[in-house]
Each structure stands twice: as C-alpha cells, then as structure tokens.
C-alpha cells in the first residue's frame, strides 16, 4: 500500500519558510502553491512534495526579496 503524502497546514509552511501565514495564504490563493481546502472552512493543506516542487521551480519568492513597491503620488 502506498504511503500517504505528508500534508502541512499554512502555519507549518510559514514556520518552515520563515514567512507569515498571510504570505502562504496569498501564494495558495494566487495559485503559486497548490493546496487543498478542507470542506468550507479556512484550513488549507499543502502536500510536502508540492511545497518542495514549488521551491525548486522558483515559484515561491525567496525570503527577504520583497516585490515591487508602488510609488506614492504626492498631491499638489
């Protein structure tokens, strides 16, 4: 019988990657990181192998590299 894949919650992924849980949720909701939602709740599960695959393929941005910032427009 094949072994069940290890499933991680968003909190566990966040702790492993040293990012916030909101960041992991953003990756899940934007499709960067595949996940399964439990019923209609707010719990997302990420397969360990999907996380490793996303990290290897550089889909998940490295820690400490923020995305582009919007410039503030000064009002006249």
Report on this model:
With 76 residues, the chain is of the alpha+beta class. It has a domain at 7-56. The chain has helices at residues 10-17, 21-29, 48-56, and strands at 7-9, 36-37, 44-47. A three-stranded antiparallel beta sheet has the order 1-3-2. The chain starts with 6 loop residues before the first strand and ends in a 20-residue tail after the last helix.
Q: Could you say which overall geometry the principal axes of the C-alpha atoms support?
A: globular
User: How far from one another are the termini?
Assistant: 69 Å
Strand order of the largest sheet: 1-3-2
Mean pLDDT, to the nearest integer, reads 80
Class by SSE composition: alpha+beta
The count of strands amounts to 3
Poorly predicted ranges = none
The ordered string of helix (H) and strand (E) elements is EHHEEH
Helices, by number, come to 3
Kindly estimate the percentage of residues that lie in beta strands according to DSSP. Answer: 5-15%
Radius of gyration in whole Å, from Cα? 15 Å
Main beta-sheet strand count, sense and barrel state: 3 strands, antiparallel
Fraction of residues in H or I helices: 25-40%
